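Lab meeting notes turned into a lecture example. A postdoc, R.K., suggested we walk through two folding results consecutively so the class can see how the record format repeats. The first protein's sequence and structure tokens come next.
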Amino acid sequence: MRIDAHQHFWQLSRGDYGWLTPDLGTIYRNFTPDDLKPILQQHGIARTMLVQAAPTIGETEFMLDIARRTDFVAGVVGWADFEAVDAQAVIERLAARDKLVGLRPMIQDIPDPEWMLRPALQPAIAAMAGASLRFDALLKSPHLQVVVDHGAKPEIRSGQFDDWAAAMRTIAHDERVYCKLSGLVTEAKSDWQTDDLRRYIDHLLQCFGPTRLMWGSDWPVVNLAGGYDRWMAASLSCLATLTDHERAAIFGGSAARFYGVAN
């Protein structure tokens, strides 16, 4: 069973997508399960992981409501305020909802690079671990299983590779850390070609192997950089030398195992 490990829905009238502005053109509109369903069917993808796009509890509850009535959504990666006084209670309440599998603080928008090390976050992290929730971020912790979103966003458009590659090798040494093969095309030039992505994908595969690498579309953000179909075609091309079993892991098995959902 194929799983898209990273996709979004949004409803503009909810008003909490601070980053989603009219200048983003084609993605500045509502995106719903009805928009994604035919694309999934075209590519033989049976289930998805729905990931937060706004840093609010309302966003998490919005996604959980969608997941409750959408069969193809296997799990939700939501958001919670890790620094709130009641963070532990809020996370425990959210974890009791069906299909919540993880949380994702929007670390790329937090100026402090040491934010995750703050002692004040420990109750929230403990609550996540206690509820067996997964962490979508770039983090090392003795208690959480972690997935690095979007391959840590290498600067493909400028051709930078070495520093990123070294960092990913270091991160991958911890076998509890997985990585999403997603979001790369939005880091490439607007006229990107498959070969522009190949060495980055090859490196992620070398670091994490098929069993800790999971494919995600980052739909509908991917529409800014060629769309779902083109990213799928590029991924399949770059992974063409793998065995069927290895591709099955990247396109479903790894996500199912990491998030603890049926495959």
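The second example is placed directly after the first for contrast:
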Amino acid sequence: MSSIVLVLIIVVEAAALATASGLWLHQRRRAATLERKLSAAESTWASGGRATVKAVLETAALVRAKGIGGAIRSSIEELAGWAQVEQPDLRRLAARDGTVTIFFSDIEDSTALNERLGDKAWLRVLDGHDRIVRRKVNEHAGHIIKSQGDGFMIAFALPAEAMRCAIGIQTALANGDRRLRGTPIRVRIGIHAGVAVHREGDLFGRNVALAARVAAFAEGGQILVTPEVSAAVDDSTEFSFTDAGTVELKGLTGDYRIQTLRWQADPAAH
């Protein structure tokens, strides 16, 4: 029996228990039984996928915190939704050779913009920016690893999809979202591909740091990529690159060659 089905069965039992009337002692006995089932489920699924464990533990915690009746008042739909929430396995997102394409972005001069606009207007700008990024990531089969402030860390299986996403973001920003018409923003993007360490829905390792440093080296409106990314589309006429030279990246030893991915509104493309 799948973990999702089992947790839903437990939830249904809770619903039946909560809706029973006039059987207080019976409810107490059933509640004890339900508690044992939840504890057993936690123990069993602790050796399974972390996303499933998260769903089960949240359901159990809700039942314990609010009581059976309170948990049900939070709605069966909500509990069922928790049971269905599963973070993608990042190992499955990797390409056949085990590499993952890592994409970092942030808004250029975001602190100064926040200071100039004030918090309320800045939040509207962030909302417009975030909507564009998330929409383009969904369109190109990416997975947002984390978002903090005005920046994103995103993973893709294929460098081509990461670059299409980057071009889509820059083009959408250049065309002007209604939330951004009064405050145009410039986003810098860096993309690198390599093997990364997967842990608890996050990516770690030298290649992640390299991708972040490439993004930090970019200017607003630029998409910088490493040779590992551009080499993946050598046979394609869809993408065009210009050499950005060899640079030192903060915290990393050695020199690194980077390239600019050209897009229509990019000044470097003309």
